[in-house]
Amino acid sequence: MRKVKWIFFAYMALVAAVVVAIAVSFRLVPARDQHTLYSSYYSNVRSLDPVKITDVPTSVVAGHVYECLYNYDYEKRPYTLIPELAAEMPKLSADGKTFTVQIKKGIHYFDPNDEIPGWEQVKDAAGKVLGRKGPEVTANDFVYAWKRICNFHVDSPQYSNIFQGKIDGIDDWWEYTKKSPRDGIDWDRPIAGLQTPDSHTLVITLAQPFPQFAYLMAHLPTAPVARAAIEFYGERYRNNPIATGPYAIPAREYRQDERIIMEANPLYRGRP
After folding, report:
1. β strands within the chain, DSSP E
2. Is the overall model pTM greater than 0.90, yes or no?
3. Residue ranges of the chain with pLDDT lower than 70?
4. Cα–Cα distance, 236 to 48 (Å, whole number)
5. DSSP per residue over 67-131, as a string?
6. HEC states along 165-180?
7. Whether 96 contacts 211, CB under 8 Å
8. How far apart are CA 131 and CA 266, in angstroms?
């Protein structure tokens, strides 16, 4: 009988300890911010570098940071392709092979880590540094980003998914990178099907007509990247995305297997 009594008291003490621990945890954990949206992701984000993005969880996270030439109006049925970084819908030549895209002016990259040399610091009204304002997005950024995808040494699956056999001269670029050392690639080497007659005009010439290419320009891996950011971070860029979208991910808030906190991009020109 005495043994049963001690088991009962031990059990009650354990329950009380658990209740106290829960109560203390609620007191220690700060209340949820009413201006913050909380969500969850069901697997680790693999890489926030567009050349490596292939899975849905990563795309969901990166889609808040990067922008493409086009996106979709999800409030319409059926979904409708709309300009995002492009100033208007693409103009298609009579032979169906050449897309001419005008790019919006005044859109700048944002560095939430306040690290990239030469970029201008961004401060709030109280003088707190929010990050750095990068260069304006230009047509050359798309050419550079797409060349990265089609770089043999990067081994991006998006080369075959999006570009292979579609853009005039793109396969020649892939062969060139294959024959070149990783650190010896001439990024200024021209590609016949990617021309920039001015800083905000991108002319894409296809190897053969493919009207669906307009929709590929809304695919996340085609987002532009800042060459200065890629060169500064190197392999670390996979955890330090620098882009133009409504949100940014500071390195201090990126814990791949625990939590990711996105902060509003102070340079964003519209509503998220």
Report:
1. 70-73, 80-83, 91-92, 98-102, 108-111, 120-123, 129-136, 194-198, 201-205, 247-248, 254-255, 259-260, 263-264
2. no
3. 1-9, 21-30, 271-272
4. 10
5. --SEEEETTSSS-EEEESSBSSPPEE-TTS-EEEEEB-SS-EEEETTS-STTPEEEE-TT--EEE
6. CCECCHHHHHHHHHHC
7. yes
8. 9
